[in-house]
Design brief:
With 700 residues, the chain is an alpha+beta fold. The chain has 20 helices and 17 strands. Among the domains are: 37 residues, no CATH class; 118 residues, no CATH class.
């Protein structure tokens, strides 16, 4: 086995015969101290330690990485050309009209658009779930969910960003969505900001190929093109995070070369004045590290250099196809390109055969006494032969039937490569399937979604990630002094209205919540199929909420319908939580669901008794709530033999197992007036002196 030795500073091995006493003083009794890794010229986030500006390192480094990945950018342009992109920035004159030589049957584009429509037609809305929450936290989580829905609406995520990212994911293999912000109102006492969601073309994005080998790079780069005067206006004042002085920034913007990026494809600087703006992010090296960095720069000038504390980039990625290694996904265009090229070749061959052979011909003998001038004024050809009296028509076969069959089978083959069924492509049931049973038809139509379930999952997983990034961005904006206000559907008090929700009023600590969405990838695609699937889930006692069921059926105004369905449970849960937290009693009302009160309050008592800090007086209040519901359900003077016993307090009297001992008169009402009725569905507390406290017990 080879032996490796640490070389000395001179490059030579140390003398093996040197004794301990003969060693220099620096080598005796000195413990080796741990030091940080040495700095390298690629660590742009430590540019200050090199006494350099960030752009002095980033300009050359990014250019080197772009040259290294020129093949990826060339492939992206080829994918866009095959898809039929009309992008003219390459200078290829794509808008030449329809009378061109490259006009063809673009089944590749049709197939991708069909899959895109099937996956991204669903509007997946994130919902916030809070663990071990009381009613207040639960209601706050519902408001947080509505805030997220409003933030996504105002950012036009479902109209612009998500559909565009879906096209990028199919054409390029990766669909990036960037989360940012912009200031929208500074007239009030507190400035208001809006969270933005934007789809980015992956040919404008960059990661180091070696660093991203396992899919988790620590550095991320983006470029864009911005008008020079927009940059002047954005960086003409001092602001936190801006780099250098105002004079340095404006001078750098003024001297920066315009239209110098190959993506612009224009050499005429007189038409526009666009500068290449670049951004770079470096993730912190550890939970307690402060070396995270965010830089914005143009050629020769750094505009922004600030700390970056997130443990992820401000991007969500939707990828098509499985990824073995690396960062970028596989393009669906690349998978379909061979079939599309074969289709183009067969179409050209058939077109040529039809133009040559697809015209009628007349065979005429030399002595047939036919004047050629009488028959040469019609499309076709005249063939002279040696048979004297021969006159007959001849229609030659243009191509073999097999050639036509091969050409006609390619569109179906391309759809099968992406898992698209004939029903999804045409929305028509084939004649051969119209007499089969409903169960068989449901299995057949469900084959397509099952084939591209992974792509459905990519979309569904991207929505919670997008929600978490928007939460983080809102938290940062709140720390910066901004308020993030969105318009969203109102709560249960007014389902048809729109209310304004401020982030500070709905914010819940991210460590206590989880964002979830209802998976739709495994459901049938027809409405009847979805209804049947949900009915089977119900018969199998699968726990699924009414709201989730209506979302999967794509019924409009889901939130409003859900609020009506669960209003009985909500008011009971609200009253139980209030009594448990404050010790104030809330009486049931005549129009409450008394059977539901008995069930929910019983379960709530048992759940409360498990707690180590359970209070017997609180249990007595909750038991009184059950007693009053039983009495109200029976009505005055009722003698129903099947009614529950007159008091449930006996079940808790004397301190049951698992409960601390209770005092006398457990469950008795507080002294003073009996409970008073409040607004519909809301119990009103009474104070010990018999007076109604200011406002209801619900804080209204």
């Amino acid at each position: 086995m080879a032996q490796y030795n640490s070389p000395s500073s001179s490059g030579e091995l140390p003398d093996q015969d040197e004794s301990e006493d003969e060693k220099p003083e620096s080598k005796k009794g000195k413990k080796k101290e741990s030091t940080k890794p040495k700095l390298t010229t690629t660590q742009w986030w430590r540019s200050e330690e090199f006494d350099k500006k960030p752009h002095q390192i980033l300009d050359g480094m990014v250019k080197s990485m772009e040259d290294d990945q020129s093949g990826r950018y060339a492939a992206y342009k080829e994918y866009e050309r095959l898809f039929g992109s009309a992008e003219t920035s390459y200078g290829d004159d794509s808008f030449r009209g329809i009378a061109t030589d490259d006009l063809s049957q673009n089944e590749l584009q049709n197939t991708i658009e069909t899959l895109w429509a099937q996956v991204f037609k669903n509007r997946i809305v994130p919902a916030v779930s809070v663990n071990e929450a009381d009613w207040d936290e639960w209601d706050r989580a519902k408001s947080y969910s509505r805030w997220l829905e409003g933030a996504l609406d105002e950012a036009e995520a479902y109209e612009c960003a998500i559909p565009q990212a879906g096209i990028y994911s199919l054409v390029h293999g990766t669909g990036p969505i960037k989360v940012g912000w912009k200031e929208i109102d500074c007239s009030g006492p507190k400035p208001v900001a809006q969270i933005t969601v934007t789809a980015k073309n992956p040919r404008y994005l960059l990661v180091d190929r070696i660093e991203a080998k396992h899919g988790f790079p620590r550095n991320f780069y983006e470029k864009d093109h911005v008008d020079r005067w927009v940059l002047f206006d954005a960086y003409k004042e001092e602001s936190e995070g801006f780099y250098g002085t105002v004079e340095d920034r404006l001078a750098g913007i003024e001297r920066c070369t315009a239209n110098d990026d190959l993506e612009l494809g224009s050499q005429n600087t007189g038409k526009c004045d666009m500068l290449t703006l670049r951004e770079a992010w470096h993730l912190p090296s550890g939970p307690d590290s402060d070396d995270g960095k965010h830089v914005i720069w143009i050629n020769g000038c750094t505009l922004v250099c600030e700390e970056f504390s997130w443990d992820t980039f401000p991007y969500v990625f939707i990828r098509f196809g499985p990824k073995l290694e690396g960062f970028w996904g596989e393009s669906a265009v690349r998978r379909l390109a061979p079939s599309q090229k074969n289709l183009d070749k067969l179409n050209r061959k058939l077109d040529e055969a039809q133009s040559v052979m697809g015209v009628p011909r007349i065979i005429i003998g030399n002595n047939a006494n036919v004047k050629l001038g009488h028959v040469d004024d019609i499309p076709g050809g005249i063939i002279l032969c040696d048979r004297p009296d021969q006159i007959r028509e001849w229609n030659a076969q243009c191509a073999t039937p097999e050639l036509y069959n091969d050409r006609d089978s390619l569109p179906r083959k391309m759809k099968s490569l992406l898992g698209i069924s004939d029903f999804e492509a045409t929305q028509q049931i084939p004649q051969s399937m119209r007499d089969v049973s409903g169960a068989m038809l449901e299995r057949w139509t469900g084959q397509g979604p099952a084939r591209h379930a992974m792509f459905h999952g990519e979309y569904e997983n991207a929505i919670p990630k997008l929600a978490y990034l928007m939460m983080r961005q809102a938290e940062d904006l709140q720390a910066m002094g901004y308020d993030v206000v969105v318009r969203s559907p109102a709560g249960s008090h007014n389902k048809s209205a729109i209310e304004q929700l401020s982030f500070k009023d709905v914010h819940v600590d991210r460590s206590r919540l989880k964002v979830k969405v209802q998976s739709m990838s495994d459901l049938p695609q027809t409405f009847a199929g979805k209804v049947d699937a949900l009915e089977k889930m119900k018969n199998a006692n699968v726990a699924i909420s009414q709201q989730a069921a209506m979302r999967m059926l794509e019924i409009p105004d889901v939130q409003g319908a859900q609020d009506e369905l669960v209003s009985d449970e909500e008011i009971i849960f609200k009253n139980l939580t209030h009594m448990c937290k404050t010790g104030e009693y809330l009486s049931p009302l005549p129009f409450d669901n008394h059977d539901l009160i008995i069930q929910m309050a019983t379960r709530y008592i048992n759940k409360y008794r498990v707690r180590n800090d359970a209070d017997g007086d609180v249990v007595a209040l909750l038991a009184q709530y059950i007693d009053d519901a039983i009495a109200m359900k029976r009505g005055p003077g009722s003698s129903d033999p099947n009614a529950p016993p007159p008091s449930t307090l006996a079940a808790v009297g004397g301190g049951p197992i698992g409960m601390p001992p209770m005092g006398p008169q457990m469950g008795s009402m507080p002294q003073g007036l009996p409970p008073m009725a409040g607004p519909a569905g809301v119990g009103v507390a009474t104070a010990p002196d018999g007076q109604v406290p200011g406002g209801s017990a619900l804080g209204m």
